Amino acid sequence: MHSLQPPFFRELQDSRRVLIAGMGGGFDVFCGLPLYFALKAEGKDVTLANYSFTSLGLGLNGPLSHAVVPVTPALNAQPGEYFPEYWLSRWLVTQGEPGTVYALRKVGVQPLKSAYEALVRHLDIDTIILVDGGTDSLMRGDESGLGTPHEDATSLVAVNELRGPKKLLACLGFGVDHFHGVSHADYLEATAELTRSGAYLGAFSLTPDLPPVQKYKDACEAVFQMMPRYTSIVNSSVVSAIDGQYGDHHATSRTHGSELWINPLMGLYWTYHLPAVAHRLQYYAPMLDTVTLSDVGLVIECHREEVTIRPRVDIPV
């Protein structure tokens, strides 16, 4: 019998040591947790990392680059403090998992690439999966709305520049970037283009009966309780969709006053060969020289001034 399993999983068959990294900051690493638990169940060695929005103190990193901070429960953050990586590390330990989540500082491509190189060496990584909470990582630069491209583009370029590991991208939360002005028609067009080039690796649903999905939901609920003022809009929307909620359903007070469209598409992973996505980025070359996130902002601003912005198209369904 021929399998209907998405090509994404065939790509991972020979992977042994996998790094799953949130690419856009905040809670993006949580969007990788279903993959983390699924791949661990297959016997793979899996580590978590996240581009971090938290102000990270200076400490001894051992063999790691200055731009990487190993986050463990020993750091002792204050209750309620915004530090998703720390609260996730605490929750992981309660599940019998290793408690280290590697936080990547808010930097540009050059230091972030060095950070990833150090992690790859330190952990002997053969495969990197960047995870986007949302879908704006596929915006190439001339769309009517780019969402929040700074961190996504920095991660995309830094990881694509690495030599050695296989590089994949997974997006979770179709529709959540509408809040940031993204037209999802642009995202579907990008996916169609990547399909033609052989870089689209399929989409698949997270359903509430799956153990890795249940672990993901548990992690979200536990960490939201630790940081009640900072509940993740993306992950709470995804969890609502997985649970079968629909329409203007609000799981957190942070979204009150806006109209939501929670729907089953939010619970899908959309997966890609990362290099093909990176090569679509129209401002890839100037990104290579960036050192700070301010540099990245200038690159994007200059690019937007130089190109013709395509008119917004809404999905005709």
Automatic annotation (TrEMBL):
Read off the InterPro entries from this record: DUF1152
Superkingdom as given in the UniProt entry: Bacteria
Q: List the protein's name.
A: DUF1152 domain-containing protein
